[in-house]
Amino acid sequence: MAELGQIFSFGLLMISSWLAGSAVEKSGCPGLVGELLAGALLGPQTLGLISGTLSANLMLLGDGALMLLVCEGGISMDMQASARLYSAPTEA
Question: Do residues 6 and 51 make contact, with C-beta atoms less than 8 angstroms apart?
């Protein structure tokens, strides 16, 4: 019976992160922001809807997901905008 609760919690996390990512994308921000917010809100430290045992069991999956999130963030970065933002001002 405990496995069913963990499956439900995992499904809840996946659906809520997808919905939050889609909602945040419509506001103009990257979907990654919504996905991270959903995970943080549902986790054991805040609302507690995702149990600590489930998060411990999914640690390997979480590490892989973190790697993918970092790669997605790097790919979606606008390098030209970053260069303009961080370039030294030129004096005429």
Answer: yes
